[in-house]
Amino acid sequence: PYNNLMCGIFGVYQNHNYSGTQFIQSLNRLQHRGHESCGISWVDASGIITKKNLGLIKDNYVGLEFNVVSPMFCGHVRYSTSGNSKNDDAKKIEEAQPLTGYHKRLGYFAVCHNGNIPMDTHDTQNIIDNIMSYESLNIEQILPIILEKYERSFNLLIMTDDAIYAVKDRYGTRPMCLGQVPARGQGQGCCVSSESCAMNDFSYTREMRSGEIVRLGGDGITTIYLSPNSKRAYCLFEYIYFLNGESNMNGMTIDMFRYSCGIEMAKNDSMKTTNKLKIDGLIVVGAPLTGIASGRGYADFFSLEYQQILEKKEGTTRTFILESTEKREAESKRKYTIEDTLDLEGKRILLTDDSLVRGITLKNIIMKFKNRKVKEIHIRIAAPPIYNRCQYGIDIPTKEELVANTVDITEMAAYLGCDSLEYIPLPTVSQLITKENILCTECFTPDPRLEF
Fold first, then answer.
1. Nearest 5°: phi and psi at 301?
2. What is the DSSP string of 24-35?
3. Under 8 Å CB-to-CB from 156, ≥6 apart: which residues?
4. If residue 207 lies in a helix (H) or strand (E), which one and from where to where?
5. pLDDT tens-place string over residues 66-110
6. Is the Cα torsion angle 311, 315, 317, 322 positive or negative in sign?
7. Do 421 and 411 form a contact (C-beta atoms < 8 A)?
8. Which of 107, 221, 346, 360 is most enclosed, with most CB atoms within 10 A?
9. How many Cβ atoms are within 10 Å of 379's Cβ, its own excluded?
């Protein structure tokens, strides 16, 4: 099914008109969450207007400018998945978001969705159809029914002609936070976003709670419902890979979390009694961009030299979210570069990376270093091994494609062509976020518990 998986959503309410350019620039800060399409809905005197395009925001809005003003905007960037790779462009644009619906009492409304509700049909359209089916109820009566009906995972923005409603599923799997600016003459402004990094014009207030529905309107941010059946199962892979390093989650920046992962990997190496790594003389390198913070943490623990020898080529994208093996292979080969003038012959390199999924990109990086005649290359992965697909919004490939299922951990270094490889243990990385059992770690668990 053509669902919504890992996307970025952003919504703004202002009592006075807000600039479309400001909105586009904020939505652009969520571009890392989806590259296939981008869409915006806003309100004017004629009602709700929606504009959707394939591709990146910067390619559709020259100079990130959008000459529209409105008191309300909601926007969406879509994650490209293997499930939609065969769809033609017309179909992709049609199914890009925001999607719209019509309700007899409510009128027209727009919906943005981040997540994945396991079902055999288009999950966002299913939600819209459900909203439209409750003809005698108003929106604040309908949304709690929707929230309790679907288990997970979904974050929703529903924009009407006078408010924006944000809905977070009862497990809180995907991140979504709130921001606001103080009242200033013409009224209060507030926003809702997949990540705090997009809040260019707003101050981060808090994360939305599991099972919470809020209204963004003339009175600011108001909680209209909090489910009595809520649990917490925050996606660990969000912290490891998807979230922008500048984003704030549960009281810390993601870069600080990733830096701490590097510290823990260094501690693990320092405590080993067999096959102990010779630390002296290592040059630490972080794979851009999500492996850099952990590399700096590793280097700082041992007082080692950190060098950003490996660079990401401008214009390349995250290989993980590309929709075919051919595209991932091609992109991984051109994605990274090592400065030609650097003399690496005889050097000993330790590379930190955020995760190891198929091994395609990492194999190519290792080969690039070997071609430069390094003496040794050691790999440290700031995530546990990935064993399972995700049902709730991460487009992890089939179990057979996951390298942890096809190569024994003890043979992984030889398979990749490096001198050593270590993962961070699951309990260690989980404890860096919280000491409570509130994380969804299904993809990292060989025999996952599906109930929490």
1. -60, -40
2. HHHHHTTGGG--
3. 111, 112, 113, 127, 146, 165, 166, 167
4. strand 203-207
5. 999 999 999 999 986 544 445 688 888 888 999 999 999 999 999
6. negative
7. no
8. 221
9. 24
